[in-house]
Amino acid sequence: MRTMQRSLTSALAVAVALSLAACAGTGTPTSATNAAVGAGQVAEASVTLTDGWAKAAETGMTAVFGELSNSGSEDLVVVAVETDAAQSAELHEMVDDGSGTMTMREKDGGFPLAAGEHLHLEPGGNHVMLLGLGAPLLAGDEVAVTFTFDDGSTLEAVVPVKDYDGANESYDGGEHEAH
């Protein structure tokens, strides 16, 4: 009888462990998608995006905003971003063009995200630019974005699309129309 109880207890423990392991990789749309921590997985375990959103746009380009937070002990750099909603996505910063006018341009080297710090992606500041929209992004839609970090890890997030009249900055170099 004891052998049977031990076998049932062991089988139950294995089933619970497998169930928990299957759930561990699901994550939330704005948090890491992989719970394991190891080389190249720092961001996956420590970076989150909160209050993320994309500006509604019919054509051309638009932007993604929100707050990236690094709760880990390792400094990171956001080096790239991808989405299926546009032909390309770039990390952009706002800079003074020398005449007192602020213009946006691609951020060389990416965005540093120090351990324990936050990175604000906001209209008129650092943001993610979506170029060559594949279809209109209308208020109420959602956009999936993937942030890539210098350690090779990624953060997948889904952000809502919202109407917003601001963020009509000019683009340094003039090769894109601002939306």
What would your notes on this structure say?
The chain has 179 residues and is an alpha+beta fold. Helices cover 16% and strands 42% of the residues. It contains two helices and eleven strands. Strands 1, 2, 3, 4, 5, 6, 7, 8, 9, 10 and 11 form an eleven-stranded mixed beta sheet that branches. Strand 9 and strand 10 form a beta hairpin. The radius of gyration is 21 Å and the shape is globular.
Mean pLDDT: 78
Q: Give the total of beta strands.
A: 11
Distance between the termini: 73 Å
Q: What is the N-to-C order of secondary-structure elements (H for helix, E for strand)? A: HHEEEEEEEEEEE
The gross shape turns out to be: globular
**Tally of contiguous helical segments:** 2
Question: By helix and strand content, what is the structural category?
Answer: alpha+beta
Unreliable residue runs: 1-39, 174-179
Major sheet size, sense and barrel closure: 11 strands, mixed
Helix content: 10-25%
Gyration radius, rounded? 21 Å
What's the multimeric state?
single chain
Q: What proportion of the residues form beta strands (DSSP E)?
A: 35-45%
